């Protein structure tokens, strides 16, 4: 079984995927963490986020390992001389601001997608194009949406920030991500604006049972 959960930025994909995976007793896979780790390494190395060949060269020398778990994903830089966990550092405002530019590069999307396709099911996969480009064969597909203001309020609860500024950044991110932020034709769209986490998980689980 593969369950895909796509959606716009800060729509709750990771939390929902974790809850659904726990309910199904299978891992969940965070594609966004690979993009975030790649962005973090590029920022630290001073590599342009629009230079696909340079980014691929950097990533070729920096072995990233994604560890999918039901309770959360972790990502590691497995260099022999200095192994390092990147999970926390990949969730910063600087990475937030740069990850969309990197994720728009077809070569980088394929780099991420190839690593996701190599994983062995069952799992819940969350990201931007899970149900379209990566796992079109998935039986249960979902796409999460919410208003920019609701998403901004949620993100500010997770990290310190100004709601207005975060909302404007999310609106700009939505415009940048339009190529990836569209649901698969057979995906169930869930508006999470007026739902709590348990409500969204329940809606997804109902959809999974219908498609089982």
UniProtKB/TrEMBL annotation:
Enzyme class, UniProt record, top EC level: transferase
Protein name: Cytidylate kinase
Boundaries of every Cytidylate kinase domain copy: 3-209
GO biological process: pyrimidine nucleotide metabolic process
Cross-referenced NCBIfam families: cmk
Protein family membership: Belongs to the cytidylate kinase family. Type 1 subfamily.
Keywords: ATP-binding, Cytoplasm, Kinase, Nucleotide-binding, Transferase
Catalysis: reaction(s): dCMP + ATP = dCDP + ADP; CMP + ATP = CDP + ADP
Gene Ontology MF: a single term: CMP kinase activity
Pfam families: Cytidylate_kin
EC numbers, comma separated: 2.7.4.25
Keyword Manganese: no
InterPro entries documented for this protein: Cytidylate_kin, Cytidylate_kinase_dom, P-loop_NTPase
Domain of life: Bacteria
GO cellular component, as recorded: cytoplasm
Organism, scientific name: Deinococcus psychrotolerans
Protein residues bound to ATP: 7-15
Localisation: Cytoplasm
């Amino acid at each position: 079984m593969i369950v895909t959960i796509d959606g716009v930025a800060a729509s709750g994909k990771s939390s929902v995927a974790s809850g659904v995976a726990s309910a199904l007793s299978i891992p969940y896979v965070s594609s966004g963490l690979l993009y975030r780790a790649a962005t973090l390494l590029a920022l630290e190395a001073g590599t342009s986020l629009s230079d696909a060949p340079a980014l691929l060269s950097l990533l070729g020398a920096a072995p990233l390992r994604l560890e999918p778990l039901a309770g959360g994903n972790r990502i590691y830089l497995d260099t022999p001389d200095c192994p390092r966990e990147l999970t926390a550092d990949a969730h910063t405002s600087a990475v937030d601001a740069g990850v969309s530019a990197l994720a728009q590069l077809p070569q980088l999307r394929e780099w991420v997608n190839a690593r996701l396709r190599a994983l062995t099911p069952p799992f819940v996969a969350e990201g931007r194009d899970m149900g379209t480009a990566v796992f079109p064969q998935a039986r249960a597909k979902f796409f999460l949406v919410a208003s920019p203001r609701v998403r901004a309020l949620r993100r500010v609860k997770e990290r310190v920030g100004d709601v207005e500024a975060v909302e404007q950044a999310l609106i700009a991110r939505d415009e940048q991500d339009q190529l990836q932020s569209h649901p698969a034709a057979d995906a169930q769209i869930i508006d999470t604006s007026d739902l709590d986490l348990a409500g969204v998980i329940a809606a997804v689980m109902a959809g999974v049972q219908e498609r089982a």
